[in-house]
Every structure is written in structure tokens, then in C-alpha cells.
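Hi everyone,

Forwarding the result from last night's run.
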Amino acid sequence: MSPLNRRSVLLGLGAATLTACATQRLPAAPAAAPQTFPKVLARRERITRTVVGLRPFRPQGFRLEAERFGEKTVIHNYGHGGCGVTLSWGTSQRAATMAGEAGRFDVAVLGGGVMGLTSALLLARRGHAVTVYAEAMHPNTTSNIAGALWLPASLYDRDVATQEFLDLNWHVTREAHRGFLPYVNRPGYGVSWVRHSETSNRVRDPRFALPGGDDLYPDLQILTAQTRFGFPYEERYHTLMIDPDYYLDQLMRDAQLAGARFISQRFETLDDVLALAQPVIVNCTGLGAGKLFGDETIMPIRGQLTHLLPQPEIDYSYTTYIDGSLYMFPRKTGLVLGGSHGRGNWSLDVSEEELTRMIDGHAALAERAAFATHPA
């Protein structure tokens, strides 16, 4: 994983309108009995850590293709923006298939984050001799501080992405979702279903389908009354929550058990990469691909996450907008507060202003009267 990228945050979330390929109208859900939801205790004295990272974003979307360099074949699998963890099973399966089509036994994987680990695991299980090269290894990679709610939307610009990419992304998203399902509630992997709400200041009419299709989100409801926080519009459904603290530990262990080797190595130039002994190379370097492979389109989107002490009673998540984007994801290790998106910002310093916005914003949401009156 590139040093530029090692503290990145990959946040699988965003406005669902960004990634849908179809629109539809759904009937409003009938009223149900109100239920009180526990409040998030968003206070500074409950902060356990604040982390900052850079999402590897390409306006046209992720890069998934083969490139020849003389006798070497490079399979590119990078540039997933805020959706690296959530899309990992989708693009990595395709990258592994492309690597296999090169017809060579030995394969190198560049990058020790979720894309590199998933690609390595798939290739090793298919019988390849796999070596992972990265400067930073788990637990010190990009993906280790990801938000990782399964809602892959913040990965391209709609006015730049082609229809060909949108079609590819639709199928890859569905494949990625299927890849995670066998891990739900599997001991030690940190993957589970969570009740999620996405609220908006305006009614979406017509609305776009959720990423990959509405059928991937059980119990979907479209609400314009009795909404969470009292917003005019809410989409409420179940989706997957992936906790990188657990998941990446198991993923690396699985890759090692399948036979993948791991070597710590830093690459400065393309020549350094092509000097590897393996004839096939899977490139999962994220932001590092800009320097190594001359990709001038890749850029950082800065993210800052604040972790709070655990609240076991919190069994729901939300994304919303109040003086900027805000989201909360519950984990066993603590509550994750986020919502910052600094395009082109390379700073890894904690912003005190952003920290204050997070704490005050989530505290204000918890106190809104509508919080305790919406149906279950």
C-alpha cells in the first residue's frame, strides 16, 4: 500500500442518488407503533480516537483492466473512492479471473489493504502461487480505518462516468454483496446486518434505486412522515456493516492459510514493479497508482472519523445532513462518527473544526424530538 494511502479511510456510503441506474416510485410505508431508540452519547469525554485518511478517488470510477508491459501483465484494481471495503469481493473476483487468464502460475499482488488481501485470497484458492508486496501490512493499512457500511455510492462523478462504467459498476456491486453474505454473523469476521436510515432535506421524487438494486436491502421503506430526526424524507432498510478491526484480521489469516506469502517492500517507480520475478502483477495500490503507473486522474478525498466508547444498546446506523454530511456506525469496539469529504485535500492532520462539527452535529441529532417517535 502506498505511503500516501496507508492512513486512508474507505467509506462505503454517500447519497444513493449517485450510483443508481434506474428510478422508481415505492408506496409510503404504513404507520406503525412508535418505538424509542437509544440516543448516541456524542460527547468529547467519550472520544477514544480520531483518525484521518485519504480515499483513492477517480472521477470516472475505479480502474479494472489489464495492461501489458513487455512480457509482464498488470491487472489494475484500484481507485474505489469511499467504497474499497464494500466493493472488494466484486472487483477482486474479476481481477483474479483476469490474472488467471494470463495463463501463468506465479502472481504478485501490490498492496496490503482490502483489495490486495481479497485478490490474494481468491488467487491462492484458485491454485496460484501468490506473493503480496506492500510497504504497509495489516493492521497498518488504508482499509484498517475504513467506515465500511455496505452502501457503495461515493466512487465516481455522474457527469464524468460513462454508461459502460455504470453498467459494470452495477454488476460488480451485486457480485460484491454476494461475496460478503457467507460471512454474516460468522464468528470473528465482524460482518452483520444493521438497521440503517438515510434522511434528506428534500423528498426524492422520482427516486433512484439504491446501489446495486433495491432488492439488496431488506425491509426497505420510503417514509415522508414519522421520519428519523424529523426530516422530510427517509429511506430505511437493512444493510451490512463490516468492522475492519475484525474482518481484515481474518481476511489476512485466510489468505495465509490458502498459501499467500507476504513481503514488505516499497516501490518508487514502475521499473521497480516490473523488476519483480512474477510475470503477472495485480495492482491494488490505491493512491500510489498515480506515481507508479502515471494515473493523473486519481486524487484524494480526505476523511476524518471520530470513535466513541461503545454503546451496546445502539443497534442502528444513519447517514444524514445537518450543517454538512454526518453518519454514525455502531461497532463492538465503539461508535464511529464521520461525514467529511475533502476533495483534493492531502492533509492527514486532525481538524479541530471538523471534530467539533462531528460531536456537536451528532449531539444535536440525538436531541431532536422526532428521534423517539418513529416506527420500528
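The mean pLDDT is 89.

Cheers,
N.
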